[in-house]
Write a structure and sequence with these properties.
Aspartate Aminotransferase, domain 1; 7-stranded mixed sheet; single chain; Aspartate Aminotransferase, domain 2; about 325 residues
């Protein structure tokens, strides 16, 4: 089992601090997420139907018709390795570790390398996987470079898989969605981060129709519950909320960066929903937060921590108190 953020109950048990007293900044999920209205009774009482408007709402939101709704992008991460014979798969490190894990479990050969080394490995690869913005460090890879890599892979029937789970908060020009249909290009999106609907388990895969058809057959019927489909449809159509939220997240990210810099932290990456900080004393910093019942992500192998955004005035005051303590210690 790989470690993920959001394991609040384990932290509460280990520290002996009641669950209700904790502040969870470990996930990068939008704390100001879209608030669903009550789901109609008729939705609960019927099997999910593809003709409910979700695909149309997603096509309008993403500007892309070649898409497949899936029960969270995690399901696609686990299913995609089954669609290719055992091959050489490259992973840009650091990355969301479920990606290499899923391919490794299906017997594919995994090569992990840094962003600067991609060109050195590309000719060996059948599949290249990366996150953009990157998870965990928020690095944003230029679109022109991604398209160049996609072209090289396509010439030999390869795939470029781009996980854009944290892209929704950023301007559209950074996304590859307008290039869907390019041979071998596969894009993953999720409603869990920007929309804050992680519990609904709704994601989308964009790519060539032949790949989507195979993926759909692999996942099987009714992959997303009817209520989750209904909620996702309403969220995708709420353009007014989306516009306001992008402004809000930009403002909140600037506030978080300013606060962290007062303690001498240097924030990396361009993902608005979290701040990634490399620090040699990351373990002691993590401990300081845990002592105050604030859960953050700690990447011991990278010597780094990551913090999501507080969701209200009280949460900001708690974060500021810890930061000021670290600044004075």
């Amino acid at each position: 089992m790989l470690e993920h953020g959001g394991r609040l109950r384990i932290a509460a048990q280990e520290r002996g601090i009641p669950l209700a007293d904790w502040l969870d900044l470990s996930t990068g999920i939008n704390p100001f997420g879209w608030k669903p209205p009550a789901v109609p009774d008729s939705v609960w009482q019927r099997l999910p139907e593809e003709e409910d408007g979700l695909e149309e709402a997603a096509t309008s939101y993403y500007g892309c018709g070649n898409l497949l709704p899936v029960p969270g992008s995690q399901s696609a991460i686990q299913a995609l390795p089954h669609l290719r014979a055992k091959r050489i798969v490259g992973v840009v490190h650091p990355i969301y570790q479920e990606h290499p894990q899923a391919w490794r479990e299906q017997g594919h050969q995994i090569l992990e390398f840094s962003f600067s080394e991609v060109d050195d490995y590309l000719k060996q690869l059948d599949v290249l996987i990366l996150c953009n913005p990157n998870n965990p460090d928020g690095r944003l890879i230029p679109k022109s470079l991604l398209l160049s890599w996609a072209g090289i892979l396509a010439e030999k029937g390869g795939w470029l898989i781009v996980d854009e789970a944290f892209m929704d908060a950023l301007p559209n020009e950074h996304s590859l969605l307008d290039n869907v249909g390019h041979p071998g290009l596969i894009i993953l999106r999720s409603l869990g981060k920007f929309f804050g609907l992680a519990g609904a388990r709704v994601g989308f895969v964009m790519g060539e129709r032949s790949i989507l058809d195979r993926l759909k057959a692999s996942i099987g019927p009714w992959p997303i519950s009817g209520p989750s489909r209904w909620i996702a449809c309403q969220a995708l159509m709420d353009r007014a909320w989306q516009k306001i939220m992008r402004i809000t997240l930009d403002e909140q990210a600037v506030r978080a960066q300013k606060l962290l810099r007062t303690a001498g932290f240097s924030c990396n990456g361009e993902a608005l929903l979290f701040q990634f900080i490399e620090c040699p004393d990351s373990e002691s910093v993590r401990e300081a937060f845990l002592t105050h019942a604030i859960l953050i992500r700690h990447f011991s192998g990278l010597g780094a921590i990551r913090l999501g955004l507080p969701g209200n005035v009280s949460d900001w005051l708690r974060l500021e108190a810890v930061i000021h303590q670290l600044n004075n210690s």
